[in-house]
Design a protein that fits this description.
Layout (H helix, E strand, L loop, with lengths): L9 H5 L5 E5 L3 H7 L4 H21 L4 E8 L7 H24 L3 E5 L7 H14 L6 E8 L1 H17 L10 H6 L11 E4 L18 E4 L9 H12 L11
Bound molecules: farnesyl diphosphate.
The site of farnesyl diphosphate has 19 residues, from helix 2, helix 3 and helix 4.
Length: 248
């Protein structure tokens, strides 16, 4: 019999829902290692966990979800693992795209996906084109993404606009800078979740998480269930957010 899905309790639903959840999905390798399986199967199990988390964010009406799928540093991994991850993304989009589209999810890719294998690029372009007018959950996949590179790209594009005379040096402010990041027009994440117990940001959305509440879960990513997500949101709802000011 299919396992009955647990529902979020009413206190969670009545509390303030995060507007943008960002997730560092860590621990796939350790999950596989614990089971004496190849690391790649950890990533495959991670894909199943991701599918459920996207569905749950959609059901909870969280407007934005950003997941770290592949960093600019992940190219250093063995070629077989890199290829597996790229193929997994192709498989994920191929299998899930219709359902994501039916659920009105709009897909974005943050990062230089033009450096990924051609079939990956094709699948991404198809997903972006199909979902671009959707008005539900904005689902950002950070792929070949590095936050420092994103910031340098923003600095370059602003410099070009200054040099061409389009804008004045004095008109550069935080708002303009944020509009030149890959997340332009999106609210900053208010909740950053990292799994597998690691307490690092790992070059992920460095500018955007300036005031995010960080929740570190000891659970390895493939074991991260909707219930773990509810737990993280509850922890977020219990935090006192002051943005550098004083308690209201
Ligand atoms: C970190 O775990 C995880 C990754 C580098 C990849 C994340 C990818 C997925 C969850 C697969 C599905 C994603 C998509 C978009 C289809 P790790 O390998 O560093 O784990 P470890 O620290 O235990 O070795």
């Amino acid at each position: 019999m299919a396992k009955k899905k647990s529902m979020p309790d009413s206190a969670l639903m009545e509390g303030y829902m995060p507007q943008h959840i960002a997730i560092i999905m860590d621990g796939n390798g350790r999950w596989a290692q614990q089971r004496l399986l190849p690391r790649t199967l950890g990533h495959r199990a991670g894909m199943s966990a991701l599918k459920k988390v996207v569905q749950t964010c959609d059901e909870l009406r969280v407007p934005f979800l950003t997941v770290f799928a592949f960093s600019t540093e992940n190219w250093k991994r063995p070629e077989t693992e890199v290829n597996y991850l790229m193929n997994l993304l192709v498989e994920f989009l191929h299998r899930e795209l219709d359902e994501l589209h039916r659920n009105n999810v709009q897909i974005h890719v943050l990062g230089d996906y033009e450096a990924t294998p051609p079939k990956c690029q094709d699948e991404i372009r198809r997903a972006l084109a199909l979902t671009r007018h959707n008005t539900g959950l904005i689902f950002n996949i950070a792929l070949n993404y590095g936050s420092r590179r994103e910031i340098v790209d923003a600095a370059k594009s602003i410099s070009k606009r200054v040099l061409s005379g389009e804008i004045q040096l004095d008109s550069i402010d935080e708002h303009l800078f944020a509009q030149c990041l890959y997340t332009a027009e999106m609210p900053d994440p208010d909740l950053l979740i990292r799994t597998a117990g690691e307490k690092r940001i790992s070059n992920f959305l460095l500018w955007q998480v300036a005031y995010a509440e960080i929740v570190v879960s000891d659970v390895l990513w493939p074991d991260f269930t909707p219930e773990e997500l509810y737990r993280a949101i509850k922890e977020f709802q219990g935090r006192d957010r002051r943005f550098g000011g004083l308690k209201k």
